[in-house]
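User: Run a structure prediction on this.
Assistant: Running it now.
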Amino acid sequence: QVQLVESGGGFVQPGGSLRLSCAGSGTIFSFSVMGWYRQAPGKERELVATISSSGGTNYIDSVKGRFSISRDNSKNTVFLQMNSLKPEDTAVYYCYKFQGKVWGQGTLVTVSS
């Protein structure tokens, strides 16, 4: 059974940092584009960042320069480093494997003073 498990969410003050991890089991990441989505309360889920199998990355404008997506294929893990966090970054963050359309269960990030 294919599973993606996120970790690393939590509560942080504005300007702080968090690093999210997404570990996969029952599947191989290497050949798939991986992504991080987020869903804020009352809003639609949005794609935040993607990373290709070769390491190419894309970000939505609101997180460029603050977030960084990376992957370690040897460990079947994808990361999202989030710096200079803002209250508007508060959301449940989901890992997504494009090949096979697999979702993680989500991890909550709360940015507040």
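The first strand starts at residue 3 and ends at 7.
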